[in-house]
Design brief:
Blueprint (H helix, E strand, L loop, with lengths): L14 E5 H15 L3 E5 L15 H5 L4 E3 L4 H13 L3 E5 L10 H8 L2 H4 L9 E6 L14 H5 L5 E3 L4 H13 L4 E6 L7 E5 L11 E4 L4 E5 L4 H13 L4 E5 L2 E3 L3 H11 L2 E8 L4 H12 L9 E5 L9 H4 L3 H12 L2
Parallel strand pairs: 2-3, 2-4, 4-5, 5-7, 6-7, 10-11, 10-13, 13-14
Antiparallel strand pairs: 1-8, 6-12, 9-11
Length: 338
């Protein structure tokens, strides 16, 4: 065989290392460049670039008509986004902290979520509400809550929470390009702690598809958002004891990947569900219910939840409140020894 006939190896796709918050920024930058209907706005997102600097530099590049500050009124921010979406724009509204969304709740649940239904499909509401969520940064009662379950309960809203830069960029692009309102929760404790390779080429991550972070046969550890590094640590501790854990990152809560979860639990027979939201009304309760309904005969132990406590988020006891690797590991041992 001549040298000329030997195929050259395919070039590896180009990537860049980003933190989660850098991935959010670059996703916004790319969508602003790609589609002149995209608008980014919220409290201090303009010249300052947001309280966490997620929008840093965007106003300078795209101008004050497309990246701008708003009054301190979440109701007005969300209401403006609904109006923009109806008129054909692609608004991306930032709420400074997830804890602050309350004044915009009616606009989200009564207007944005229902617009497609009440208009018989004549109108859609392609808007994204981005917001930092969860604890781990000692923000206290009003800067650390995980309220995603409120919005999972509202038909018409999609709910997303990434845990990696790759997913943050791909899911945010998909959310902006979609035709429905999306609540995009960003785990603030991973903003700069989560780093990873992100393709330089355009891509999206489909909403409603979980990621299997690690395959295993003995137990399924299922979580989303800020808890995922601790879920992985628990899986590593189990591996050191000869236990094979499958790790699933839901990424998307509405819609959520029932098929991936059920296939995993049917295989392992055990499930530990992890989130940092309070236990009562936790979205993982829905996941547990579906597991019980669909694969009950495969279960070797009860489904166990590891969650935040049913108290206001504490100022100084983050490590007690948050479901760290130790609490996850203890739950896994309970399931394994059942």
């Amino acid at each position: 065989m001549s040298a000329a006939s030997v195929a050259a190896p395919a070039a590896a796709p180009a990537t860049v290392t980003l933190t989660l918050i850098q991935a959010v920024t670059e996703a916004l930058r790319g969508e602003l460049r790609r589609d002149n209907r995209v608008m980014v706005f919220g409290e201090d997102v303009g010249a300052r670039g947001g309280v966490f600097l997620a929008t840093a530099g965007l106003q300078a590049e795209f101008g004050e008509r497309r990246v701008f500050d708003t009054p301190l009124s979440e109701g007005a921010i969300v209401g403006a986004a609904v109006g923009m979406a109806v008129r054909g724009l692609r608004p991306v509204a930032e709420i400074q902290f997830a804890d602050y969304i309350g004044p915009g709740f009616d606009q989200l649940t009564s207007q944005a979520a229902k617009l497609r239904y009440r208009s018989g499909g004549q109108f859609t509401c392609p808007m994204v509400v981005r917001t930092p969520s969860g604890g781990g940064v000692k923000g206290g009662h009003h800067h650390s809550q995980s309220p995603e379950a409120y919005y999972c309960h509202t038909p018409g809203l999609k709910v997303v929470m990434p845990s990696t830069p790759y997913d943050a960029m791909g899911l945010l692009r998909a959310a902006i390009r979609g035709e429905d309102p999306v609540m995009f929760f960003e785990p603030k404790r991973l903003y700069r702690a989560a780093k990873g390779e992100v393709p330089t080429a355009d891509y999206v991550v489909e909403l409603g598809r979980a990621a299997v972070r690690q395959e295993g046969n003995d137990i399924s550890l299922i979580g989303y958002g800020g808890v995922m590094p601790d879920v992985q640590k628990a899986a590593e501790a189990l591996a050191a004891e000869g236990v094979s854990a499958e790790v699933i990152d839901l990424r998307s809560l509405v819609p959520w990947d029932r098929e991936a979860v059920l296939a995993s639990v049917a295989k392992t027979g055990r499930a530990v569900l992890v989130s940092e939201a309070p236990r009562i009304g936790n979205f993982m309760g829905e996941v547990a219910s579906v597991i019980g309904e669909e694969v009950f005969d495969s279960l070797l132990a009860p489904v166990i939840q590891v969650a935040g406590f049913d108290t206001p988020y504490p100022y100084v006891q983050d490590r007690v409140y948050l479901p760290g690797a130790g609490r996850i590991l203890n739950a896994a041992v309970r399931a394994l020894n059942y």
